[in-house]
Design goal:
Helices cover 82% and strands 0% of the residues. The chain is built from eleven helices and no strands. Keywords: Membrane, Transmembrane, Transmembrane helix.
Amino acid sequence: MYHHTVARLTLRALLGRRRALILLALPALLIAIALAIRIVGGADDRAATEILGGFALAVMVPLIGVIAGTGAIAPEIDDGSIVYLLAKPLKRHTIILTKLWVAIGVTLAFTVVPTLLAGIILNGNSQAIASALAVAAASSSIAYSAVFLLLGTISRNAVVHGLIYALVWESLFGSLVPGARALSIQQWSLALAEQVAAPGANITSEVGLPAALILLTAATVAGTWYAARRLRVLTLASEG
């Protein structure tokens, strides 16, 4: 289920100089915004909810998920170097699971920690807002990693399609269109945050907790399973 060499190579690819700078940019911006708001207006629960929910969870987490999820496998497929990996005596699901673990780890590191830190800066974790949205960031990071890893196996324009999903569906439709909210990873993760935060934190979700847990799990498992299936098809195509 895990291969050290595959993990090391994937991590090295994800944390290359250019990609690492992109991964750091959004967390740095979040922290800078939090510091500026705290200096100007002091501790504010409402500001914490709006910034962490409207920027961290709705923009930063899905975008970093795109970078880590697609970046874990799409470049290797695009440049053909995946053939060398597939030639090794490794089970295809082991390759996918290893890349998924790495993508999840990178996404968690660049989303959960900044979200929690920004929340503490904004209001000292009053009403457990920082903790709640850090939990939401963690749960959505796992689902995003699986979905975007799958996207990396089925599309040569995985990053473009991932950005369209993250910016148009999750950030725009998922926040503004009532019917689309129920089909948003962001809203599913907010259901967990709603349970962690205090009642006065004003964190709500369009989806109930049981449904959210089922949908998050289904997205992660289905994405991982189909990505492994796609990799097996790719192997057969290259052999043929």
